[in-house]
Amino acid sequence: MGKKRKHSEEIAADANKDESVQERPKRTLLGWKDEGEPEKESDSVGVFRNKEKVLVTSSRRISYRYRHLMLNLVSLLPHCKKDNKVESKSSKGATLNELVELKSCSSCLFFECRKGKDLYLWMAKCPNGPSVRFLVNAVHTMEELKLTGNHLKGSRPILTFSSNFDKDPYWKLLKEMILQIFGTPKDQRKSKPYHDHVFAFSIVDDHIWFRNYQISCPHSGAQKLDRGDLEKMTLVEVGPRFCLNPIKIFGGSFGGPTLYENPFYVSPNQVRSLEKKQKAGKYAKKVKAKTRRKMHQLSNPMELDEFADMWKD
């Protein structure tokens, strides 16, 4: 009986030791974490993190100049993903929405080239919209301009807008879409944690003009910049350049109800047809003038010169 009692006392002592010993902490991706450690308030509440990603693609048979413009934008947006070309004649809306979902993106920039001459830019929020269709004019790529400005690839840009964007509601909508698509999210995986260039969007003649500038500051070494150095900062253009003429704003992604239609928009086909008519009108005027000249010569013949044959051999 004494041995059994002694054995039960040893088992109870071992159980008390196990309760007193702390359990081994669990290992996580961020390190070792104890189970008794209280969670932070940020984990329980949930902090908003901008996970904006933009899909950049183009239609087939795009010209080399417009393709270089698209690649320039890809190099300027570290939070974008590039994909293969899409056939624009088919149901491109459903195809692009599916591609955006497969690439885990929330926005899309689609460069659509028509007749090898005209470039249209679709700017859409997927899958519920809205979306905008632009006509792109005055295209100048980085390779063409050869400007002196330069900035680090992947750095976050500062977006600036002219005061015209706050006048009408459709300009406010375009401003918000540009902010979400062209603004690089904070702590993005491929971006750098500082700003060294500026995206400038300005409205002139109901067109949106895009410029990219480098923030150039005086070299002060390891010292901090003084107020005088900040005042000496200048902007040096980097490129590319282009102009966006808004055509329509749709309520859905690549379609849907029309929220706004530009009343001053003239398609490039109409411009070319007017130029042909003007050229044809000039040619018709020349033909009419030539026939009038012949009729005038026939109705008013010149008198014979009596000395016309004098100098002939």
Characterize the structure shown.
The protein has 313 residues and is α+β, with helices and mostly antiparallel strands. The chain has a domain at 54-269: Rossmann fold (3-Layer(aba) Sandwich). It contains eight helices and 13 strands. The protein has helices spanning 2-20, 41-45, 64-76, 92-102, 142-145, 169-182, 227-231, 268-299, and strands at residues 26-28, 31-33, 54-58, 80-82, 107-114, 118-125, 131-140, 155-161, 192-204, 207-216, 234-237, 241-252, 255-261. A hairpin with a 3-residue loop joins strand 5 (107-114) and strand 6 (118-125).
Sum up the structure in keywords:
single chain, 313 residues, alpha+beta, Rossmann fold, two-stranded antiparallel ribbon, 13 strands
Q: Which helices and strands appear, and what pairs or packs with what?
A:
Elements: H1 2-20, E1 26-28, E2 31-33, H2 41-45, E3 54-58, H3 64-76, E4 80-82, H4 92-102, E5 107-114, E6 118-125, E7 131-140, H5 142-145, E8 155-161, H6 169-182, E9 192-204, E10 207-216, H7 227-231, E11 234-237, E12 241-252, E13 255-261, H8 268-299
Parallel strand pairs: 3-4, 3-5, 8-9
Antiparallel strand pairs: 1-2, 5-6, 6-7, 7-12, 9-10, 10-11, 10-12, 12-13
